[in-house]
Predict the structure.
Amino acid sequence: MRTRLVAAVLACAAAAALVACDPADGGGPGRHGKPGGLQRKVVPVFVGMGLQSAQDAARERGFRSLRSHDALGRGRMQAFDRNWKVCSQNVAAGTTVSTGTTLDFGAVKLEESCPARDQAAPSVTGGRMPDFKGRSVKAARAALAANTSLTVKDASAHHRWVLMESNWQVCSQTPGPGARLKGQPVSFTAVKFGESCP
C-alpha cells in the first residue's frame, strides 16, 4: 500500500514538473531562450475600447496577465466584460514592457461616464473610521476588518433590503468619520446610486 502511495506522489510530482516547464504556457524556456517565451512589446491604447475588445487585443499582442477593476471605486465585478468600457490602463500606451507584465484596466459600465481619474477604494488608516459617505456599501465593507459587525439599512422610507451592495451608496455611518475603530459594531444607512440621501 505504501509503495503505491509513493508511486502516486512521484507521478504527480513528475506531471506537475512537466506542466510547469511547458513552453506553450510560459512556464519554461521559450524558443528564443527567454524565460517563459516572454518578449518585449509596445503597449497599445486601450482607453475607449470595450473591455472585452481590449482584453482580446492585449492577448493578441502576447499579454496574458490581464486584470480589470471598477474605475468608480464601487467594487463591482466585471462579470460580463462586453458590458464595460476601458477608462484607464495601468501601463501607459507606447511603453515597451515584457509580455509578462500585468495589464490592469479601469472600467465602467457602457452607459456610465469615465471619471477624471480612477477612484481608489476607501481604506482604514491609523485605525480610524474613514468617511464613507457617497461610497458603495460594498467598498465600505471591504475597507473594514473582516470581523467587523456591520448593519446596513435603507435610508429611504421604502425599507428595502440592501442586497447588491455595490449598487448602494452610504448616506450616514456610525461611528462617524475619524472615530477610533476598536472592534465596535458599525452601521450604515444607504440608498441606491442615482437616488438622493434623505
About this structure: Residues 5-33 have pLDDT under 50 and may be disordered. DSSP finds three helices and eight strands in the chain. The helical segments are 2-20, 51-60, 137-143. Residues 2-20 form the longest helix (19 residues).
